[in-house]
Write a structure and sequence with these properties.
The complex is a heterodimer of chains A (367) and B (295).
Chain A (H helix, E strand, L loop, with lengths): L9 H4 L6 H16 L6 H26 L7 H16 L15 H25 L2 H21 L1 H4 L12 E2 L2 E2 L9 H24 L2 H11 L1 H6 L4 H27 L9 H14 L4 H18 L2 H4 L3 E2 L7 E2 H19 L3 H15 L5
Chain B lengths: L1 H31 L6 H15 L5 H24 L7 H23 L14 E4 L2 E4 H23 L1 H11 L1 H6 L4 H24 L9 H5 L1 H8 L4 H21 L15 H12 L14
Helix pairs in contact in B: 1-5, 1-8, 1-10, 1-11, 2-3, 2-4, 2-8, 3-8, 5-6, 10-11, 10-12
The chains are: A mainly alpha (367), B mainly alpha (295).
Chain lengths: 367, 295
C-alpha cells in the first residue's frame, strides 16, 4: 500500500475524492467558502450568493446540453416556472389579487419548484426526443416566447407586466433568511443557505453523471444512433436528461427570485437563456465544476465592468453622458467572450484549470 | 370583405419580410449546416446604415449601398469568427453566431439610441385603394420587391456557375472541393447574401414606422418560419414566410373574438405555436430533407 495512486478496486478508481490532494484542497476550499461571510462586505456576499444560485441553473443546463448533447435555448422558461411555483406556494393566502398558499418552508417550495419545472420538462421531452440538433434549439427557443406570453397575461400568478409579485419567503427551522438577524445579516444568511444548496445539488449532479445514467447520456451525446445499437434506450435517456435539467432550472429559478426579490414576467427571456449557455460554455462543457466556474465568472462580470469607468475615461456610467456606456461594454464583453472562448479555449475555464494542474503535477517535466 | 383583403395584404407584406429573413437563414444553413443567429444583427445593421445614408442620397441608392456594406460585414464576420471553426460541432458554431449577434446588435443599438429613426422612404404611411380596401403602399412595395428578389435568387442558384458551386458545396463539401469548387468562397458568399437579405428585410420592416431597438425581435420570428418550411428548403422558406405572415395578421385582426385567456397580443406567439404543431406531425418541416440514418 505504499503507492498512493494504486487503485485496488473499481470503486476506489471512481470515488469522488480519489486522491489525497483532492481531499486536502476540497477541505481548504470548503473552509474558505464558509469563512467568506466573515471576511467580505454584504454587497459582495449577495453577488456570490447569486453566483451560487446561477451555478445550480448552469449545472442543470450542462446536464442536458453538455452531457446529453441536447441543445436547449429554453432554460429561461424552466427557470420561470420554478420561480413562479415557489412564489405562489409561499405567497400570502389572503391576497385577493394573487395566488398564494402561505407555505414558507424552504424545502417544500424548493422541491415543488423543481418538481413542477421537471414535469414541464417531461411534457416537452417527447417532442424534443423526436428532433435533432438545431431543430431542437429553435423549438426550445419557441418555448421561451410562448412562456413569456403566458407569464405576462396570467396576472393571478405573476402579478402582471410592470407590477410583479414578491418572491418566495425563505424560512427554515424558524430562521428567516431574508431579514437581518441579531447574529447574522441578511446577506450572510442568504450566502450560507445558497452555498449549502449548491454543494448539495452539485454533489448530486456529480453522482448522477458518474453513474449508469451519466454514461448513457454521454453515449447519446456522442452518437445517438450508436448508443441505440448498443442497447441504450435513447428516448428514455433524453427524457431523463430533460426532466433532471428542468428540475435544476426550477430550483435555480425559485432561488434566483429570492435573491433578486423583484422579477418582471418578461425578464425570463431569450437573453437569460443565452446567459446560461454562456456560463456553460465559458465554464466548460460537460463538467460540474466548470458550470460553477462559468456561473461565477458571468455573475461577477457586471461587478468588474462597473469599475471600468474609473480606469477608462471614455466609458461612461450612464446613458445620458454619451459615449459608450458600462452596460454596452458588458453586453459586448459577453458576446466577445463567448466567441473567444469557443475559438481559442473550447474546453472553457475548466480546461485552463486542467492544464495548470497538469503543469504543476508534472513539473519540472513538460508532461 | 374590405377589411379581410386589407388584412391579407398586410399579412403578405409582413410575411415577405419573414421570407427574406428566412431565405438568409436557409442560405447559410445550406452552405454550413448551421443556423446563423446573427441574422437579427445584420437586419438592424442594414436598416441603420440605410437610415444614415438616406440623409445624403436618394432612398433607393442608399438601400443598395447599405446592403452592399451589410453584405461585406457578413462576409467579414464569416472570415473572422466562423472560418476558424470549420469542422467543429454545429452547435458550437451556432453559439458563436449568437455571440456575434450580441456584439453587433449592441454596437448598432448604441447608434440608434432610444429615439425612433425615420428611414426617409418614399412610401411612409401612404395608402392606396385596392378593390375598395385601404392598403399601405409599403406592404405592396415589400411584397413586390421580395418576389423579384426571390425570383433572382432562384435563377442565380439554378443557372449561374456560382450558384452551381453553392449547390455542389451544400450537397457534399469534400466532393465539391475535389471538383475545384472553392468552398471557402461559397461560405463567404452565402454569409454576404444572407446578411444583405436580412438588411433588406430590416429596411422594409422599418419603413413607415421607423427604426427602433426592439425591432430585432421580429427577426427571431423567421426561426419558426424556417423550421416550418424545413431548414434546407429555399422554397419552403418563402411559402412558410408568407403563410405565417398571413395567419399572424388574421389572428391579429380577428383574434379579439377569441377567449380572453389568450390575451390581446396573442398573434405574437402564433408563429411559435404553429411551429410546434407542424413539428409534431413532420419533424423536418414541410419541405425539409428528411435525415437518413445508416448504421
Amino acid at each position: 500500500m505504499s503507492r498512493p495512486l494504486l487503485y485496488l478496486s473499481y470503486k476506489q478508481d471512481t470515488a469522488l475524492l480519489n486522491t489525497p490532494g483532492k481531499r486536502f484542497w476540497t477541505s481548504v476550499l470548503a473552509i474558505a467558502a464558509v469563512s467568506l461571510p466573515f471576511l467580505l462586505t454584504d454587497d459582495l456576499l449577495v453577488v456570490l450568493a447569486t453566483a451560487c444560485v446561477a451555478s445550480i441553473g448552469a449545472i442543470g443546463l450542462n446536464l442536458v446540453t453538455g452531457y446529453a448533447g441536447q441543445v436547449s435555448l429554453g432554460h429561461a422558461f424552466f427557470l420561470a416556472i420554478g420561480a413562479y411555483t415557489a412564489a405562489a406556494l409561499s405567497g400570502d393566502p389572503d391576497s385577493t389579487r394573487l395566488i398564494g398558499f402561505g407555505i414558507t418552508s424552504v424545502p417544500i417550495w424548493l422541491l415543488a419548484a423543481g418538481l413542477v419545472a421537471g414535469l414541464a420538462g417531461l411534457i416537452v421531452a417527447p417532442l424534443a426526443a423526436r428532433l435533432r440538433g438545431l431543430y431542437l434549439a429553435v423549438v426550445t427557443l419557441g418555448l421561451v416566447f410562448i412562456g413569456e406570453h403566458v407569464f405576462k397575461h396570467w396576472r393571478d400568478l405573476t402579478g402582471g407586466v410592470g407590477v410583479g409579485r414578491p418572491a418566495a419567503v425563505p424560512e427554515l427551522f424558524g430562521i428567516q433568511f431574508a431579514v437581518d438577524g441579531s447574529m447574522f445579516t441578511k446577506a450572510q444568511k442568504l450566502y450560507l443557505l445558497m452555498l449549502v444548496l449548491l454543494v448539495i445539488f452539485g454533489v448530486l449532479a456529480r453522482n448522477l453523471v458518474r453513474s449508469r445514467v451519466g454514461r448513457a447520456l454521454a453515449a447519446v451525446r456522442d452518437r445517438d444512433l450508436a448508443a441505440e445499437v448498443i442497447g441504450v434506450d435513447v428516448t428514455r435517456y433524453k427524457m431523463i436528461a430533460f426532466a433532471v435539467s428542468s428540475f435544476y432550472a426550477g430550483v435555480a429559478g425559485a432561488l434566483l427570485y429570492v435573491m433578486i426579490g423583484f422579477v418582471e414576467p418578461g425578464s425570463f427571456n431569450l437573453g437569460m437563456s443565452v446567459q446560461y449557455i454562456a456560463m456553460v460554455l465559458i465554464g466548460g462543457v460537460a463538467t460540474i465544476s466548470g458550470s460553477v466556474l462559468g456561473a461565477l465568472f458571468i455573475t461577477l462580470l457586471p461587478r468588474v465592468t462597473r469599475e471600468l469607468p474609473a480606469v477608462l475615461p471614455f466609458i461612461s456610467s450612464s446613458s445620458a453622458a454619451g459615449g459608450i456606456t458600462v452596460f454596452q461594454v458588458e453586453t459586448i464583453l459577453y458576446g466577445l467572450l463567448i466567441i473567444a472562448f469557443l475559438i481559442f479555449e473550447p474546453r472553457g475555464l475548466f480546461g485552463i484549470w486542467n492544464r495548470l494542474r497538469t503543469y504543476w503535477k508534472s513539473w519540472p517535466f513538460s508532461h | 370583405m374590405n377589411e379581410f383583403v386589407a388584412t391579407v395584404v398586410r399579412g403578405l407584406g409582413n410575411g415577405s419580410i419573414y421570407a427574406l429573413l428566412a431565405l438568409g437563414f436557409v442560405i447559410v444553413y445550406k452552405s454550413m449546416r448551421v443556423i446563423s443567429f446573427a441574422q437579427p444583427a445584420f437586419m438592424m445593421a442594414g436598416a441603420l446604415l440605410t437610415g444614415y445614408l438616406v440623409l445624403s442620397m436618394n432612398f433607393f441608392v442608399a438601400v443598395l449601398v447599405a446592403l452592399l456594406l451589410t453584405g461585406l460585414l457578413g462576409a467579414g464576420v464569416e472570415r473572422l469568427a466562423l472560418r476558424p471553426m470549420i469542422g467543429k460541432p454545429v452547435f458550437v458554431i451556432a453559439i458563436i453566431t449568437l455571440g456575434v449577434d450580441i456584439v453587433i446588435r449592441t454596437v448598432v443599438n448604441s447608434f440608434i439610441g432610444l429615439d425612433i429613426r425615420q428611414m426617409g422612404d418614399p412610401w411612409g404611411l401612404r395608402q392606396v385603394d385596392v378593390l375598395g380596401a385601404k392598403i399601405d403602399q409599403r406592404h405592396l412595395a415589400t411584397l413586390v420587391t421580395t418576389l423579384v428578389v426571390v425570383a433572382a435568387l432562384f435563377a442565380f442558384y439554378r443557372w449561374s456557375r456560382t450558384g452551381l458551386a453553392m449547390r455542389a458545396a451544400s450537397s457534399d463539401q469534400e466532393v465539391a472541393l475535389a471538383q475545384g469548387v472553392s468552398v471557402g468562397r461559397v461560405f463567404s458568399l452565402s454569409w454576404a447574401l444572407a446578411a444583405a437579405l436580412a438588411g433588406l428585410a430590416g429596411v422594409f420592416l422599418s419603413t413607415g414606422i421607423g427604426l427602433e431597438q426592439n425591432l430585432w425581435l421580429t427577426a427571431l420570428k423567421a426561426l419558426p418560419v424556417i423550421i416550418l418550411g424545413g431548414l434546407d428548403s429555399l422554397g419552403g422558406a418563402v411559402i412558410a414566410g408568407l403563410t405565417v405572415g398571413v395567419i399572424e395578421a388574421l389572428v391579429g385582426s380577428y383574434g379579439d373574438n377569441l377567449h380572453p385567456v389568450f390575451g390581446g397580443d396573442f398573434f405574437l406567439v402564433v408563429p411559435y405555436l404553429l411551429m410546434l404543431l407542424v413539428l409534431l406531425v413532420r419533424p423536418y418541416g414541410l419541405l425539409g430533407t428528411r435525415e437518413v440514418e445508416r448504421i
